[in-house]
Amino acid sequence: MTCITCFYQRGAESYIDLAERISFLYKAHNHLQSYMDPSQWGSVSRPLPQGPKSGQRERSNESNTDSGVLIQTEEQVGKHLKTISIQIEVTKFLHHCLKNTDSNAAAIATKYIANSKSSTLPTMFGTNKTRTDLVNMILLSGNDIPPAFELGLRIIKECNLGGQVIYTHTAREMAKHQRYDHIRQLLDCLVKVGMGEDDMIDEMIGACILVVADNPNEAKEAENLIKLLRKDSHKINAYILCGKLRSAYLMAVKAERVEDVQRIAGAAQRMGQTAVKNICNKWLEQKKNT
């Protein structure tokens, strides 16, 4: 893997740099393919991992260490091949995004990575934390979310990453930069692949609402985001958070949610929305007498 660690990654400051070095990924890929191909060894026997006997394994490891030969199973090599193949796709994708002068998405993604205080660019060759950053970077880089989502989903599945955490974090970052159409595209992608469970979708949207709740300039977008929530209880909470107490009240009384109306009355008192407080108290009084 020297092609990768020494020549592909070292000193790279952006995926433009990595794209210029993509030939090293192809070389590493070809080396591993040759290792897997018996015809490449000719009359020389390919070294194989030893059996389960500890004594044999210990002697084999000593021999391999002395000779400088790294022996891996076909499964291990196959996994390396898949990792390199995905990284080649990632490099091409992010390079295209960075070279697209019509898009500011790549700049947002680059800033996100810079703020993560990582010492190196995120690639498939790092830890799961690094790969998580990589998926976030991919999802934030393009103006067309579906291809970014498809690539990111492959990485999530291949590396067993926490998809819900990643998508929630990405949606929050999109909200910070007013990329509301991208949030909707991301939600649509999740639904199409069968990952659009109510709680997951509501957690993502809730994270976005937290970003815009206190910004009066984003009141309309906050309203639009609330409409995307699946569960009434989450919608009511979001309306309260955004100070839209009349909307919260109407939804709560329609569903006969006494505790929510009580919460809305308390919020109305704190926010000085006397009219809403009065109608809440009136409804609660009527409810008590029925």
From TrEMBL:
Domain of life: Eukaryota
Region described as Disordered: 39-69
GO biological process, one term: mitotic cytokinesis
Pfam families found in the cross-reference section: TPR_ZFYVE26
Cellular compartments per GO CC: centrosome; lysosomal membrane; midbody
GO molecular function: phosphatidylinositol-3-phosphate binding
ZFYVE26-like TPR repeats domain residues: 165-285
InterPro entries recorded: TPR_ZFYVE26, ZFYVE26
Official protein name in the record: ZFYVE26
Origin organism lineage: Eukaryota, Metazoa, Spiralia, Lophotrochozoa, Mollusca
